[in-house]
Amino acid sequence: MMSESEHSPAYVGRSWYKNFQYQEGRDSPSEARNVLLIISGLIAAVTFQAGVNPPGGVWQDNDNGHVAGTAIYASQQAAFYLFLIFNTMALSTSLLLVLYLTHRFPFYVEIWVAIIGMGVTYGSAIFAVTPGHSVRFRYVMLAAAVPWLPRLLLQLFWRFKAKLCKYFCLRCSFLLRSNLLS
Of 17, 55, 73, 79, which has the fewest Cβ atoms less than 10 A away? Predict the structure, then answer.
């Protein structure tokens, strides 16, 4: 029999929410991977489209000090800067997720080629619609690299872990012996 508190709106809201969360015994890893692929694909599509067609559109003429084909939003320099940096970071993260979730799938090389092509297209599009004076592209490139760096560093660590441990253990044991002798 259910207690009265289980019928309260707050309890029903929590139980409803928990029903849609990932549960290890109920949900299979392949279902979770499929959901993550769909979500990361949607994020990639939205962020790519936002970069190619920035909010507010592009100027259609060369009047009043603006250049046709450049983003109208770029006239608000700080806001446009933040938009470009975080949109690029979101796109880069979603593309990284797609690569990790499709690792060892058939046509994996083709997925890599498509993602590289998408990244180059995105970069050339934001370069084309952004006035040269409004953005330092090194920050946008850094934003694109941020999601990749932790994974790259972890992979390098795991690849060279034995060598690192051997180097540091030998070094530590040498230092310990020299301290004991003195």
Answer: 17
**Distance between CA atoms of 142 and 149, rounded to whole angstroms?**
10
Q: Per residue in 80-106, pLDDT tens?
A: 999 999 999 999 999 999 999 999 999
From CA 122, how far away is CA 137, in angstroms rounded? 13
Q: Is 10 left (phi over 0), alpha (psi -120 to 50) or beta?
A: alpha
Q: What is the pLDDT of residues 101-132, one digit of tens each?
A: 999 999 999 999 999 999 999 999 999 998 87
The domain locations on the chain are 28-50+66-146, 149-182
pTM above 0.90, yes or no: no
Instruction: Report how far residue 169's alpha carbon sits from residue 24's, in angstroms, rounded to the nearest whole number.
Output: 38
